[in-house]
Amino acid sequence: MQQKGAIQIIEWEDLDKRKFYSLGVFMTLTTRVTVYPASLIRTRLQVQKGKALYSGTIDAFFKILRAEGVQGLYRGFMVNTFTLVSGQAYITTYELVRKYVSQYSPSNTVKSVVAGGAASLVAQTITVPIDVVSQQLMMQGQGEHLTRFKAKPKMMLATSKRRLTFGQTREITVQIFAADGFKGFYRGYVASLLTYIPNSALWWPFYHFYAEQLSLLAPSECPHLMLQALAGPMAAATASTITNPMDVVRARVQVEGRSSVIETFKQLLAEEGVWGMSKGLSARIIASMPTSVLIVVGYETLKRLSLRADLIETRHW
Which domains does the chain have, with CATH numbers? Predict the structure, then answer.
C-alpha cells in the first residue's frame, strides 16, 4: 500500500475572499436548517428536571412531533438565523488568527487551539443575545412551564389550533428587556464562553489530528475530503463529551434566569448527581456529528472553490 501524502491545509492567503464569503453564507444557513431540531431537543433535555418531560432524545423527538408538529422542532429558528453573522465572524477570526499565530509557531496544533478559542470568543459575543431569545422560544409548548417568559399563542380560526408566530420573538424580547434590562440578553455569557471556547479550541486540533491519522491508515486513492468528513464527527464527539457539563450549566443559566454559574453547577450536582452533567449529551453528539460532517465537507469544499485561480493547478486532493 502506497502511503498517502499529508492533507494540505488551505490558508487564508490562498483564498479568493469574494467567493469565500458569498458561498459561506449559503453553507452556514443549510447547516443550521439541518441540525436545528437536535439543538432544540438538547435544550429541552438539559433544562428539564430529571426526566419530567422526556426520557431521552428519541422520546423527546416523537413527543414534540406529536404534540407540536414539525414547526415545534423549529421554534425560535427565525431569530436564530441572525447567527449567520456570528458564523461569518467565526470563520474570519479563525483564519486571521491562524495566519497571525503562524508567524510565531509552525505547529498546526498551536495554531488550531489559539485560533479556535479566539474565533469562539468573537462569535459568542454576537451569538449569546440571539441564543437567549431563541432558547426561550425553544422552550415554548411542552417546556414553557420551565421558563420565566411565556409567549401568548395565537388562535388560528381555520384550524382552532394554538400556534406560535414570528410575533412571539418580539414579545419574548420585550419581556426579557423589561425583567432584566440589556444585561438580560447576555445572561449566561460567561457560561457560554466556558463551554464554547474550550469546545472550539479542542475541536480544531482533534479534527486535524484525526484527519492525519486517518490519512496514514487509508489507501492512497482515498479522497482527502472523505477522510476529513470522518475526522470532523470524531472531533465533535470528543470535544462535546469533554465540555458537556458546562453546556448543561449554560442552558440552565440562560433559560431559568440564574446569575451564578458556580451556584448553578453546585445545585445541579446536588439535585441530579454526576450523571446530571451528561444530560443532553446524546442529543448534543447527534447534533454535532452531522453538523461536523456538513461543516467539514462544506467548509473544505468552500475553501477549494474559493482557492485563488493562480493556485488551482498546484493543489492535489
Answer: 17-150+164-311 (1.50.40.10)
